[in-house]
Structures
1.
Amino acid sequence: MFSNIKLIAFDLDGTLTQHKTPLSNQHKEILDMLSKKYKLLMVGAGMCHRIFNQMNNFPIDIIGNYGMQEAVYDSKKEDIAITANNVVPCDKASVEKRIAKLRQKYGFTNFTGDSVEYHSSGCVTFPILGTKAAPEDKLAFDPNRKKRCKIYEDVKAAFPEYNVFVGGSSSFDMSPMPYNKYFALDKYCKEHNILHSETIYIGDDYGQGGNDESIYLSDFNYLTIDNYEDFPKVVKELI
Ligand SMILES: [Mg+2]
């Protein structure tokens, strides 16, 4: 199916593991096998160290925060070294105002905790139910994403200086432009002299507003996965 593949890049949550759950031994063994034939790379939405910990310190280079953070695996130290850590300033007053307007417009005026969550990188989360909402309420809010997909274009239009994603169970995640997974993977390929055609990306969040969508819609080779338990099946041909 594919030829001349040099690099396999992965999403983590929902792709290699269940959300926020450690990498299983079975999937680790598959990554070990793949690493004998290909360069492997993580392209995540979270921080590099979070990804590294969740993978039980698996030896792999990691791109975090949609490309804002980069880490290289150091085999001597058996640890990752952060090689880039970009921070983009956030105009909190302006973000707050725009989110208040969206809440008003769509009737999301009841929320628990804060209306907006700010991350040290400059990424922003719009948690529709608030930062302190109960986990069960969050899970029940929009399981098929329909509520958020309906207003996605409007949220995007309100935040032209961000890439907006339908994130988690009841929120929108935003990364400052130009950061998204496509930007991150393209930059990595350029720096390592790897062509898009020599790269395969595997991720579960390729639908509208998903954080893998930018790669899915691009010229990179893409293997979709809808259940992380299918990971062995999805990569079988590559081993
Ligand atoms: Mg995912």
2.
Amino acid sequence: MSYTVIARRWRPKKFDDVIGQPHVVKTMKNSVKYGRLSHAYLFGGPRGVGKTSLARILAKAINCLNITADEPCGTCENCVAIDQGSFPDIIEIDAASTRGIDDIRELRDTVRYMPLMGKYKVYILDESHQLTGPAKDAFLKTLEEPPNHSIFILATTEAQKISPTILSRCQRFDFRRISEVEIVKQLKRICDEEGITYDEEVFPYIAVEADGSLRDAESILDQVISFSGEHLAYKDVLSIIGIIENEILFTLIRSILEENLKMGLEIIEKSLNEGNDVHQIYRGLVSMLRNMMILKICEERPSFLHLADEEYQRLSGIIEQIEYYEIQNMLNYLLTAEDLLKGLFPKIALEILYINLYNISKLRDIEKIIDTTEKPEFLTEKREFQNEETLPAPYKEPEAGKFGQDAHGFVEYLKKKMPSVGNMMDSHEVKVEGHMFVVLADKQSQTLFTHRGEEVKKHLTEFFGRPMNYVVRDAGDTKRNTLDEYVKEAQSLFNR
Ligand SMILES: Nc1ncnc2c1ncn2[C@@H]1O[C@H](COP(=O)(O)OP(=O)(O)OP(=O)(O)O)[C@@H](O)[C@H]1O
Ligand SMILES: [Mg+2]
Ligand SMILES: [Zn+2]
């Protein structure tokens, strides 16, 4: 097979070949069928979604010698010439390089001449938003009195930059991004037809990377084929696109759920040593969390989410263990923190980002940390509890207790029930935090307080009228300071 790139070999040749632009195609077919042509069209939309292709198909349809109902025949002299790019009446102009007044004057002169082979001369003006100054004025003059035999098609990725005077003379078509589902389908079709085998999961990766552009997807496919040969292997695709392996991302997310930050930091180190860069890890995390969020919202596997079966199984397992708000918090945080990675120390930034991700995942209400300078209780609650007793239930407003709700009231109560402990506690700082009763104690008293913990807990439950945890904390706790710093750091990030 002679070598032309896939994007050119697979350029759509008739209306029905065009993918993902049904609204545009339908209108265009009708105007061909009923002969309602405009003198100027504006094709706006993202790159690589079929603007130039449709401009040529339209040119073909109106110049085809045996047009059927609404498709060019593809075999007449004109159709063949157009497909080969040798049709003299299609004039493609790149506005980016044809901005001078002379070029446009020349255009104005040639516009007058009759077409050589076809019924219409079709001018396709690419990147037309780049026409400026006198060139634009000259072009406008042309548009004002277009000869009957010429049609202008302005294509642009930035339709908002086209001036209103030009816009008002054009019939406008807005092209859409091509969906991941459609991109995957097309890539598969191309491989099947070209006899290339593949690991099923490669296509979604390419589709995501192409970001709505079918041409970009096809170019990536070209690269992968020239790298991998007849079989597209998952690993090759990842390394070509520069995507981080799922395994690494799964481990990172798991380390957060299992509160094993050491494992997470190690996997970051390993992955960077293997040649991945911080941005890849970052982007990988964003896309994995996004998938998790979507799966958590849609109970079924939604058709727009392209996941290999295995990845789907694993993600389903993970989202069982995590609350929706945690996923959303992490994703929110990641999206605001991207700039961190642009500094001088991207690796450290990534590590901090990862640790913050862990802290933030635990916040019930992220607005709280953004809006107030107060330290949210639940952040410290979970972390400081983990080495002590069982983890607390999610915070609920306290119900009215049997005897009272205040910590010093309890100490009085305890003095009666367990005088030795109660009297000692009287000289210590105590407080109630949600489901916890906290005593801040120096090293010596700590032993006594914890030693009789079970009894104290019984009285706590009695006094407050609900299950309470009993926590004895070191009055000179350093962990607390570190946590405060995390909170401050997180706050400063959000406030920037
Ligand atoms: N809607 C589509 N249907 C089928 N193939 C498409 C479509 N869009 C793009 N392609 C593929 O991408 C190639 C390039 O498309 P085209 O030149 O029409 O894009 P474009 O919108 O004009 O892009 P640009 O804005 O970069 O000029 C085509 O040859 C084809 O292989
Ligand atoms: Mg184009
Ligand atoms: Zn034809």
